[in-house]
Amino acid sequence: MTYETVAHYAGTISTVLFGVFFLAVLVFVFRPGSTRTYEELARTPLDDDEIKD
User: Fold this and answer.
1) Confidence (pLDDT) at 41
2) In this model, does residue 8 exceed pLDDT 80?
3) pTM score, two decimals?
4) Please, where are the H alpha helices in 1-53?
5) Averaged pLDDT for residues 40-50
6) pLDDT above 80 for 53
7) What does the domain layout of the chain look like in residue ranges?
8) 3-state DSSP assignment of residue 11
9) H or E segment at 30?
10) What span, in angstroms and rounded, lies between the C-alpha atoms of 6 and 2?
């Protein structure tokens, strides 16, 4: 195998792996039922009930 062949396969494989990883993250973030969790996490900084000195 030449360097060019290995570089071509490495580029192709890394692009496919990145695409799969990106789709997995999208599925994880937009899965059903996650909206409530993210809304609770977004309101955490505004929750002043548990301030300790």
Assistant:
1) 87
2) yes
3) 0.63
4) 3-29, 34-43
5) 80
6) no
7) 18-45
8) helix
9) none
10) 6
The two three-digit tokens of residue 49, written as one number: 């009930």
DSSP designation for 32: T
Q: What angle is formed at CA 8 by the lines to CA 6 and CA 11, rounded to 5 degrees?
A: 105
Tokens 């890394």: give the residue.
14
Whole-Å CA distances, 25 to 18, 29, 52: 11, 6, 36
Distance in angstroms (rounded) separating the CA atoms of residues 35 and 45: 17
Paired tokens of 15: 């692009």
